[in-house]
Every structure is written in structure tokens, then in C-alpha cells.
Amino acid sequence: MDRTVLALLLMLTIFVSIVAATGNVEDASAASPIWVEVARGSGGMGPAENGTDLFSVSHSEWQVRWSVVPVNSGLPVVDGSDFSFFVRPELDQFLNVGAVSGKVFTEAKTGTMVIQNSLNRTFYIDAHVAGYTSYELIVEENVNSPLLDMVPPELSVYSPQNKTYVPGNITLTFTVDKPPSLLWYRIDNYGKAIILGNYSIPGLPKGTHNITVYARDEVGNIQASEMIYFTIEEPFTTPLIIAVVITGILNLGLLVYYLKRRKD
Fold first, then answer.
1. Exposed e or buried b for every residue in 72-97, given b needs 16+ CB within 10 A?
2. CA 189 to CA 209: how far, in whole Å?
3. Helix/strand/coil (H/E/C) assignment for every residue in 90-155
4. 84: which residues sit within 8 A by CB, 6+ positions away?
5. Which of 106, 182, 194, 264 is packed most tightly, with the most Cβ within 10 A?
6. Residue spans of beta strands (DSSP E) within the chain
7. Section 184-207 average pLDDT
8. Cα–Cα distance for residue pair 217/122, rounded to 1 Å
9. Are 143 and 57 in contact, with CB atoms under 8 Å apart?
10. Bridge pairing between strands 164-165 and 228-232
11. Selected residue with higher pLDDT from 104 and 170
């Protein structure tokens, strides 16, 4: 066999052996999860309906480590020893992206829910632990998993503008540069009115008002528009002008008549 071919075969054999022994460093690094804590919650000792506050993740893979501990192991096994944890997106209380349930007897129970979700960023955990038990929840995300969309939507509001309007419905007109999952506005920093798109705002009283429009995209990024100030006032109409002119003429006539009588 040609020496060149033998040399090439030898080099290929050495390369395959090295890869087999060490593995592909880049692939191994990408496959190894790196878990970073983002939230935790705890509770128990009686009927409980809580869990965690709202939390946001920035990567597509995350997990919930949970534990349930009986406080009094001498209690009989009854329905009151049930427990359940439901992981839900902030805006959909009926959607579970992760769930676990069971019973606590005489020993602590632990487990991990691994969740892969790229359609939302903000979640909460609804915890139900009855009986004399306590629980702990720890939320961690894998920072080696794909990064979620972090760019908020862009809002452009065209109406109302910073000017004076006559009493009546105020038209709210705006555009969003990506599909929203939720739209809402606040008038005078009060309330939260959810809308589906451009909207006619009824019944605003006379005076100065402000409005802010909000948009949330399908991943959970939120953007608020600049606060827009506007005023609602009665217009200075033609009949009103005529009335003012007539009143002025009458007053002037009375003044002339009064001055003339004083001269006489």
C-alpha cells in the first residue's frame, strides 16, 4: 500500500480515537445544563392556596424542584394529605405547562418538573397542600438552553393627541409591530381596560386627562407608550359668539344712554 495512504489512514485512526475518548467539546458543553435559580416559594401547615409570586424566565428550558414534608407523621392517612403544584402562565390560569400531585404519608417527598416552553416568559405556581404538611418550591432555568425573545413590542399611538377635544367619544388609534397577546390602556393612571385593538373611549368628563397604552407580545414582553395628555372642553361656537356680541352691544347702549342722561 502506498505510504501516503497509510499515513492518511493512521492520522484518521488517531483522530477518531481522540474524538471517541474526549467527545465533541462543543456538543458536550451545549448538552450540559447549567441551572440558575430564578424564584422560590414555601408554605404549608394547613390548607394552602398559594405558591410563588410571578416570575419570569429568559430561557426555553427550566425546572421546578419541589418537596413536601409531613409535620406530624403520626397522623392517619386521609384525603387531607393530598398535595398538588400547577405551573401556569400569568395570563392563562387554566393552562398547565407543568403539574404534579400525590399524597404525603410519613416521609418527605421530593421531585423535579422539567419544563420546556417558548411561548411565555412569566409564570406562577399554584400550590395546594392540605393537612399538616409544609412545602418548598425552587425554580431554576437552564442558561445553556435557547434564549427566549427578549424584545418588547413597539407601540405607535396616533390618537388621541396632545390637544383639545369636544365632549364625546375619544378615538384610541395605535399600531403594534408584532402580534400581541394582550392590549390594554389606563386613563388618568387608573384602572386597566383590556381591548382588542383600536377603540372608542366613551363618557370622559370635561377637563384634562392622560392615557397610556400597553401591549404584551406572545412571549410575555410588555411595552408601554408615552403618556399622552389631552383636554375635553365645550367649543366656542358661533351662537355663543353672537350672544356675546349682542350682550356687548346692549351693555354699550345702556352705558351711552346713562352718560347722555347725566349730561342732560
1. eeebeeeebbebebbbbbbeeeeeeb
2. 9
3. CCCCCCCCEEEEEECCCCCEEEEEEEECCCCCEEEEEEEECCCEEEEEEEEEECCCCECCCCCCCE
4. 99, 100, 101, 102, 127, 128
5. 182
6. 35-44, 49-51, 55-56, 61-70, 82-89, 98-103, 109-116, 122-129, 133-142, 155-159, 164-165, 170-176, 180-187, 190-195, 199-201, 207-217, 222-224, 228-232
7. 92
8. 11
9. no
10. parallel
11. 170
- The per-residue pLDDT for range 117-166, each reduced to its tens digit, is 877 888 999 998 877 788 999 999 999 999 988 889 999 999 999 999 99
Contacts of 256 (CB under 8 A, 6+ apart): none
Question: Is residue 157 within 8 Å of 94, Cβ to Cβ?
Answer: no
- pTM of the predicted protein model: 0.59
